[in-house]
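One such shown below:
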Amino acid sequence: MVNSRKVHETVHSLQYSHKWGNCYYAVFAFIIWFSTFSKVAAQNFAPAPSPSPVIDDHVNSNGKISLFDQNYNVTWGGYHVRYLDSSQIVQLVLDNSSGSGFQSNNKYLFGSFSMRIKLVHGDSSGTVTTFYLTTQENKNHDEIDFEFLGGRRGSLYRLQTNVFVDGGGDREERMHLWFDPTSDFHTYSVIWDANQILFLVDGIPIRVFKNLQSKLGVLYPSLKPMRVVASLWNGDDWATEGGKRKINWEASPFHVSFKGFDIQGCMYEANSSYCAHTDSPLPLGSWSYSPSHEIRLHQAKSFEHVRKRYVTYSYCRDNTRFQKTPPECFENGF
């Protein structure tokens, strides 16, 4: 509250001042009173501000713009994005007012796309963290997904992968991870070329989706460039226990941390033939196809182990949705 007694004593003392001095000091006392009242009123009656972004310099120790700013930009929930360690770490925040997300500045046709992520700790029920590639079309879009579905405290995170082509998805697979993804950063990667899509976790392949379009007529994303997108949002209508487990907002705000913002791929240059051409001058050679993207022998054992032990759902085994096993499943090692 305004200290009315102090103001009153100040005005009272001015009554013994000279006529002109009296006017001067009266004005001065009013200014003091008005300033004090304004501050108190602002504290008591101003609406609560939105969460402010925690921003440090987007410049590294060498005076260069951060890798995040070179390759990405925030697309929504700007006041729910925090930049740490000169933007080497970007933290997305979710509360009951908004989530947040960012995307790559450029589109790519084929490449290697990785992100190091530390997921929401504790009760993460209903939260959805994403890292994916998308053409961003309203209809007939292509998309390659990592989706991390939160759960109650002490339960295992579920990782869902999916592939959309020309607007069609329904190729979900879900699995548990063999580590705690909330205690430290882990690397999630998509290697996408004209031959196949590889999903990897810490360098271990967990899923392959081959280009069988000419062989089996199964559509494959090979013509349209995509952006890289990451987000954190409220998915409690479906993400945890089929929507039965809702977000515990008392545990908010929720945080997901990202780092490793390098992108290795073919930046789309007006037409797809540039990126698909075998002689394209790319950092790691041609992304249209390379034998180096195949699963190596030492990776094959890990791949088989992960598939047998940690995959909890595959559309290939869903007899309720598909009366016949989709033809690509036999080729993709389901």
The chain has a mean pLDDT of 81. The two ends are 69 Å apart (CA to CA). The first strand starts at residue 72 and ends at 76.
